[in-house]
C-alpha cells in the first residue's frame, strides 16, 4: 500500500491509503474510511444498476480530484469493498482450504446483495450451501470430506466456524443455512459454545491487530443449547425404542432355535450395539454426544462391516434379516432427525421456512 495526501472539501489535509485496486486508466475513486480505490465506473455500471445510478448523480464542480479523478465516499467497510471490487474484476475462485475463503465470501455476499450483483451473490450462496447444506445427502458429503481415512474428524479445516456463519446468515436473512450452522455449533461442548471463536481478521484497517472474539448473544446461546439438548433427547429416545430390548426380525435365522430371549444371538448383538453406541460411539468418549446423525451413521456402519459382537457366553454374528431391518430403522431415524433438525433450533417451519423465535 502507498500513502497519498489530498485536501478534502474543507481544505484540511487527510492522509489516504491507496489500495492495491488502483488502475492508472481508472476514471473514478471510491473512498472507504481512509482507503481509496481507483476503478473504472463502467465496470461497476455493467454489473450493478445501483452503481449506475450513483455515478449519474452530479458532483459539485469544486470537488477536489484524486489522481485527476472525481471521488465518491462509500459507507462500506474497506475490507468488504476490497474483496467486492476484486471479485468484480478478477472473479471468485475457491480452492482448499475453504475456511480461508469465508472472509471473502462474507464480504462479496454482503455487497453483492446491497448493490444487486446477482451473479456474485449466487456464487457465494452456492459456496455456503455446499458447506452448510439443506439436505442430508449434502451433509453426509460434507462430513465425509472432513474425516480422514483413519477416522479423525477435522471440520474446521474444511468449513468456517459456525458462529461466524450464524452471524452472517442472520445479518443477510439466509435462513436456509441457519439450521445446519446451529447444529454444527451445538455439537461442541457447552463451554466451547459459550466461549465463541476468533473473528475475521482485517486485511486493510488493522492487519497487525489480533482478531476480536465473536460470541453468541444470550438469545442465540439459549437457542443453541436448547437445540443441543433436544438432539441428545432424540438420540436417547431412538436408542431406547430401536435397540434396548429389541426383538429379532420375524425372519431371523435363529428364531426357531432353542435359545432363550437373553441368550438369543441377535438379541445379544443388539444389546452389545446398544452399549457401544450409547457409551462410546456417540458418547463423551469422542465428544460426539450431541450428534445423532453421526451416532446413527455409526450404527449403520457397524452393520455393513463384518464385525463380530462379543458376549460373555458366546460369540454371535447378527443374522442377515436382523441386520437388514435395523439398517432400515437407522436410515429412517437419520432421515427423521434431518427433517426435525430445524425445529430443534426454533425454525418451526422447517428448512428455510422461517427465521425462528
Automatic annotation (TrEMBL):
Read off the lineage from the record: Eukaryota, Fungi, Dikarya, Basidiomycota, Agaricomycotina
Protein's UniProt name: BTB domain-containing protein
Q: The organism sits in which domain of life?
A: Eukaryota
Amino acid at each position: 500500500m502507498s500513502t497519498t495526501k489530498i485536501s478534502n472539501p474543507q481544505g484540511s489535509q487527510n492522509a489516504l491509503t491507496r489500495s492495491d485496486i488502483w488502475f492508472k486508466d481508472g476514471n473514478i475513486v471510491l473512498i472507504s474510511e481512509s482507503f481509496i480505490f481507483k476503478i473504472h465506473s463502467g465496470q461497476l455500471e455493467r454489473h450493478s444498476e445501483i452503481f449506475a445510478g450513483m455515478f449519474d448523480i452530479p458532483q459539485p464542480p469544486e470537488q477536489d480530484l484524486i489522481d485527476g479523478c472525481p471521488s465518491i465516499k462509500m459507507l462500506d467497510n474497506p475490507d468488504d469493498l476490497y474483496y467486492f471490487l476484486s471479485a468484480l474484476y478478477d472473479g471468485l475462485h475457491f480452492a482448499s482450504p475453504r475456511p480461508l475463503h469465508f472472509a471473502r465470501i462474507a464480504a462479496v455476499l454482503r455487497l453483492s446483495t446491497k448493490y444487486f450483483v446477482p451473479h456474485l451473490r449466487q456464487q457465494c450462496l452456492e459456496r455456503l450451501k455446499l458447506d452448510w447444506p439443506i439436505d442430508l445427502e449434502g451433509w453426509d458429503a460434507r462430513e465425509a470430506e472432513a474425516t480422514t481415512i483413519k477416522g479423525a474428524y477435522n471440520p474446521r479445516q474444511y468449513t468456517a466456524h459456525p458462529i461466524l456463519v450464524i452471524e452472517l446468515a442472520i445479518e443477510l436473512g439466509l435462513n436456509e443455512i441457519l439450521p445446519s450452522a446451529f447444529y454444527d455449533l451445538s455439537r461442541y461442548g457447552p463451554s466451547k459454545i459459550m466461549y465463541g471463536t476468533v473473528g475475521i481478521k482485517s486485511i486493510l484497517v488493522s492487519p497487525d491487530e489480533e482478531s476480536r472474539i465473536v460470541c453468541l448473544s444470550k438469545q442465540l446461546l439459549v437457542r443453541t443449547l436448547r437445540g443441543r439438548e433436544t438432539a441428545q433427547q432424540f438420540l436417547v429416545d431412538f436408542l431406547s425404542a430401536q435397540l434396548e430390548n429389541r426383538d429379532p426380525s420375524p425372519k431371523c435365522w435363529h428364531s426357531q432355535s432353542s435359545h432363550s430371549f437373553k441368550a438369543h444371538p441377535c438379541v445379544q448383538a443388539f444389546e452389545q450395539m446398544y452399549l457401544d453406541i450409547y457409551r462410546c460411539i456417540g458418547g463423551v468418549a469422542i465428544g460426539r454426544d450431541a450428534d445423532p446423525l453421526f451416532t446413527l451413521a455409526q450404527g449403520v456402519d457397524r452393520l455393513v462391516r463384518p464385525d463380530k459382537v462379543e458376549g460373555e457366553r458366546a460369540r454371535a454374528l447378527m443374522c442377515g434379516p436382523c441386520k437388514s431391518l435395523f439398517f432400515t430403522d437407522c436410515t429412517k431415524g437419520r432421515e427423521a432427525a434431518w427433517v426435525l433438525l430445524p425445529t430443534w433450533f426454533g425454525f418451526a417451519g422447517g428448512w428455510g421456512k422461517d427465521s425462528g423465535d
